[in-house]
Amino acid sequence: MKKLAPLALAIVMLSAIGITAARWCFERGYTLYYSDAEAHLDIARRILDSRTPGPEQLGAVRLPLPHLLMIPFVIHDDWWRSGLAGMIPSCISFVLAGTFLFAAARRASASTSAAFAVALVFALNPNMLYLQSTPMTEALFAAALAAIVWAVVWFRDSQSALAIIAAAIASNAASLTRYEGWFVIPFIALYLLLTAKRKWQAVLFAALAALGPLAWLAHNQYYYGNALEFYNGHWSAVAIYQSQLAHGMQPYPGDRDWRTAFRYYITATKLVIGFPLISGVGGAILMFLNRSTLRAVAPTLILALPPAFYVWSMHSSGTPVFVPSLWPFSWYNTRYAIAVLPLAAFATGAMVVPLSARARIYVALFLVAAPAALWWTEMKVVHQPAVCWKEAEVNSIARRTWTAEAAAFLASNYRSGAGIIYSFGDLTGVLREAGIPLRESIHQDTTAEWMLSVSRPYLALRAEWALAFSGDEVSTAVLRAHRYGKNYELRKQIIVKGAPIVEIWQLR
User: In sequence order, what are the residues at sequence separation of 6 or more whose Cβ sits closer than 8 angstroms to the Cβ of residue 165?
Assistant: First the structure.
């Protein structure tokens, strides 16, 4: 019971912190500021609420686990419309991430004080608190990665096959949440091979951990005829980037340039992580100098893999990270630096371990309180909000404006069952806010009906309403139908600075 009491206390503290932050963000309407948050929420909804419900609605690019976990919540109309359905799994994941970090740190360091420092440095970061209040994937991936670390440390101490199975389950959760989870697998397998007394256990982990990526490859092959559709298909990040380059866009900073990629990522890390980045570096150095902290080296290296993946992606895959202090002086994907937080928190715990029992408590309190005080001062005195919130707020101003205006119009004029065609993406937020069920819509993932509607609109397009960006496939289809006598009237045109023109058409 004495061992369980600190863990129970950690869970209670993490739950209180996470729920408080989530409620604060929800009440202020911040939950769906990220366009990716809107996308994750709507993908989960369309799995059941669609003209063609089922696994195909998972799509090809965004990994499925976050959407599957939202299903029990997103089936409630009010929870979907408010964003609460996507926030609940994310908040639970935040608690699990902190709990597994606590358990892994306590096992690796044999110090409860160090474990509390690790969990609370992670939990009190305002950027993580914002992300766990949204339908984003960062909290879920942090939970899966922390679970891998805990299972690996457990296996090192026990050589238990159960620890191998736990590591494999956590690995599959990571690889079905974010693609850096795929990157981690061979390194974990190698470490287990080096530490396992029975080498077949490492092979067992590799075989079980491969199931997640293989399942996604099979999904892409079955529904899209291309196992790598997520990587090189029409809607993949690589294809979009290559198209942008072909139209004259400058390459992203860091593309084929390791030094620039690292510079941009470390700049984003300073903004997102703050003071714990310094204490984490100190703790990492201390690990190699003090015998009592050597056991924490391997878990720390595992936690360093996702940040390494992002630098590699910036160099080799055209993944952009923009920060306001560097060209092009904007905010985009700054949140990718949150991958450093579990690493910084875990390494910070090493600062506590070499001290006496009494000193550990005071140093742990300082390591937790100092960054929290600095964040609080910046937000309240200097009026510098959390970077991830600011990124989401800045990039969503135009989208939130036209979404609200379009949703208000459709809510007043759309009648149930009329049908609406639109291009799935940001426009889905209009249907959500207007309360239009997705099963009444035609979009890319209602494959056959969509293809016929946009390719032969004068014959196949029967939806009464069309929601489009000016010049997109839907807008073009409506104009083509008009030329053949199918009269769609432009009922509403919404022009917002910095955004494409939104058009709402009605069949007459």
Answer: 208
| Number of Cβ atoms within 10 Å of the Cβ of 24 | 13
Domains of the chain, by residue range, sit at: 4-382, 391-507
Count the neighbouring beta carbons within 10 Å of the beta carbon of residue 197: 6
38 vs 398: CA distance, rounded Å: 15
Find all residues with CB under 8 Å of 32, minimum gap 6, and list them: 38, 41, 83, 86, 134, 135, 429
Determine the length of the chain.
508
Please name the helix (run of DSSP H) or strand (run of DSSP E) that holds residue 465, with its range, or none: strand 465-469
Per-residue b/e over 77-106, b at no fewer than 16 CB within 10 Å? eebbbbbbbbbbbbbbbbbbbbbbbbbbbb
Place 482 in a pLDDT band, splitting at 50, 70 and 90.
confident
Q: How confident is the model at residue 1 (pLDDT cuts 50, 70, 90)?
A: low
465, β-bridge pairs: 420, 506
Kindly give, in sequence order, each residue whose CB lies less than 8 Å from that of residue 12, ignoring residues fewer than 6 positions away.
none
CA distance 326 to 322: 7
Query: Mean pLDDT across the stretch 488-492?
Result: 97
Looking at the predicted structure, is the pLDDT value of residue 367 above 90? yes
Contact yes or no for 421/474 (Cβ under 8 A): yes
Total-model pTM: 0.97
Cβ 265 vs Cβ 338: under 8 Å: no
**pLDDT, tens digit (0-9, with 9 covering 90-100), for 236-271:** 988 889 989 998 999 999 999 999 999 999 999 999
Task: Please tell me the predicted confidence (pLDDT) of residue 222.
Answer: 97
Q: In the β-sheet with 502-507, what is the strand arrangement from edge to edge? A: 441-442, 420-421, 465-469, 502-507, 488-494
Q: pLDDT grade, residue 294 (50/70/90)?
A: confident
The predicted structure's pLDDT at residue 289: 82
Yes or no: say if 115 and 103 are a contact pair by the CB < 8 Å rule: yes
Q: Which residues contact 221 (CB under 8 A, 6 or more apart)?
A: 227
The kind and range of the H/E element at 413 are helix 387-413
Strand partners, 494: 502
pLDDT digits (tens, 9 = 90+) for 107-141: 999 999 999 999 999 999 999 999 999 999 999 99
Dihedral, 131, 136, 138, 141 alpha carbons, nearest 10 = 140
CATH T-level assignment (fold) for domain 391-507: Peroxisomal Thiolase; Chain A, domain 1 (3.40.47)
